[in-house]
Amino acid sequence: MSSASRNGSAGDKGGGGNGTAATLRIDKWLWHARFFKSRSLANAMVAAGRLRVNSQPISKPHHQVRPGDVLTFPQARRIRVVEVAVIGTRRGPAAEAQTLYADLAPLEPRRKDDAAPEKARPAERERGAGRPTKKERRETDRLRG
Q1: Cα–Cα distance, 108 to 29 (Å, whole number)
Q2: Which of 37, 64, 82, 145 is the most exposed place for a label (fewest CB within 10 A)?
Q3: pTM over 0.70
Q4: CA separation (Å) from 6 to 3, 12, 130?
Q5: Does the residue 119 lie in any domain?
Q6: Domain enclosing residue 42, as ranges
Q7: Mean pLDDT of all residues in the chain?
């Protein structure tokens, strides 16, 4: 067989060719969809075993995804649940990346309590009391523990 026929069979696996690929590596798709800034970050998250495809834990970054697969993974402080809509061919702008998936998780309302936790607030002083003295600071520190 010639090398042309071998190249044609390689295109059937989704590795290129003149049509759109039916599957794509999971780390590359996450990078195309702009969930991670780099493929190495996506690769590390998958390798750590923190990603599920159709409820099955995946630990290999070379796992192939296809349209219709549901991905579940942590991102920042929330759990993302997305359905693969399209296999992208490049990492384009954010508007293009949003067309690659459908977000299945409902948006969580932001709470004002999360912005300023109780421990982060400074000690309250009466208005006009001025700056605390060194003795007052030590007493405050003793109370806080």
Answers
A1: 25
A2: 145
A3: no
A4: 5, 10, 81
A5: no
A6: 19-107
A7: 81
